[in-house]
Amino acid sequence: MPSRSGYRDSKQRLELTTDYDEAFDLIRKHESKHTEIIGAFRIVIPVDEVITATLYLPEIHTKYFPHRVIENEPLEMD
Asked: Which candidate in 11, 17, 44, 75 could, as Cys together with 6 as Cys, close a disulfide (CB 3.0–4.6 Å)?
């Protein structure tokens, strides 16, 4: 099941444009056939075609990989 989707900009920064989790929550609340609707979003990719995969954690991405990076300035950590 997709969680987020987006694209890479010209500088290869990740731009997330779609939050499927929020949409799935709304579908669950408002659609009687929510299981079938959400099930239609499944993605299948043959394992031999996968080059890399990684777990995406939104809170870590936001904290350590901000969209705007200022060159030569260290990342601030709280």
From this structure: 17
